[in-house]
Amino acid sequence: MALSTKRPLPMAADLYGDIEPSPQATWRGYWPGLTIVAAGTLAAGFLSDHYGVPLTLMALLIGLALNFLSADVRLTPGLAFASRSLLRWGIVLVGVRITLGQIVALGPVALLCVLAIVALTMGAGILVARRLGFDAAFGTLAGGAVAICGASAAMALATTLGEKRTSQAQLTLVLVGISAMSATAMMVYPLAAHALHMSDLKAGFMLGAAIHDVAQALGAGYSYSEGAGQIAAIVKLTRVALLAPVLAIVAMFLGKDASGAKKVGLPWFVVGFFVLAGINSTGIIPPFVATAAEKTAAGLLAAAVTATAIRSPLSQLLEAGPRPLFVILAATLVAFVLAVAAAYFLIG
């Protein structure tokens, strides 16, 4: 690949905080970026309320329209905080909308389907990469990012594989491709679910099982319906929880020595999501508190989507050759087809 290895990593949704270091700034340094995010999110809320358009879709479109602002380094601390920390807390608060009964209601078939989709998507990435002249490590990187949780999975896999197997340029390209395709999936997949006349359960499963990044998966789910958003959150966070065992398997067969590989456990925001769902299942949360938490979660997720769209490195897509992106596209299509098939024939 004719890519410069010195290109900085693209700015994407970074759940684990390891794609880029947290910007060092005083509290005043966060305000410029957060002000832009707040303005964009409020504008999205206005359009959503007055025209009946999904909030997260409007947040995405407004963020993309403001993408040129990402070149201003003064906005970086606030944009990074919104796309990372606000997303994490938004995910935790989504747990107030869900009960353990809903999670159990998905059943073992849904869990087996998620496991199969993750495994087959990674396998497709490796197979297509080999057919196009790349090695298995690049296929694992691209396929794993699509299969699990987008940019954060890509960074975790690159750390496990080591720079001798995956270069900085390859990682950059995967992050760029994942960012673009996840944003596209957020807009296109709900339309496909409507065209197939899917129920909330089927649509939520499909969106949670097929979309790359967490923010976009939840955004697509709640743009379809409240019920679909709840199911999408459960399914998507199940995929996120699979990152740790997948890293262990990759390290066993392809990874660098154990002393250099970074250990990734179950993320705290996933734990928080299921803890709040468990508390909500007891019925002890007062209705006004649950309502306030739901509105806060919607606002935080919309703000995270706005910030992520502003920071997406759209210009870098034109600089890279198309061949490596075919690997990401192929894995994306496999995940989508499998998720649609599972939702349509096996779920509900």
Walk me through the structure.
It is a single chain. The protein is mainly alpha-helical and 348 residues long. 72% of the residues lie in helices and 0% in strands. It contains 14 helices and no strands. Helix 5 (136-147) packs antiparallel against helix 6, helix 7 packs parallel to helix 14 and helix 9 (214-224) runs antiparallel to helix 10. The radius of gyration is 19 Å and the shape is globular. The termini are far apart. The model is unreliable at 1-12 and 257-261 (pLDDT under 50).
Keywords:
348 residues, mainly alpha, 14 helices, globular, disordered N terminus
Could you outline the blueprint of secondary structure elements for this entry?
Blueprint: H1 27-51, H2 55-65, H3 76-94, H4 100-131, H5 136-147, H6 151-161, H7 168-195, H8 200-210, H9 214-224, H10 226-241, H11 243-253, H12 268-281, H13 287-311, H14 322-345
Helix pairs in contact: 1-2, 1-3, 1-13, 2-13, 3-12, 3-13, 4-5, 4-10, 4-14, 5-6, 5-7, 5-14, 6-7, 6-11, 7-8, 7-9, 7-14, 8-9, 8-10, 8-14, 9-10, 9-13
Brief characterization of the structure:
This protein has 348 residues and is an all-alpha fold. Helices cover 72% and strands 0% of the residues.
Q: What distance separates the N and C termini?
A: 44 Å
- Supply the number of helical segments: 14
Average of pLDDT = 79
Q: From N to C, what is the helix and strand string?
A: HHHHHHHHHHHHHH
Count of strand segments: 0
Oligomer: single chain
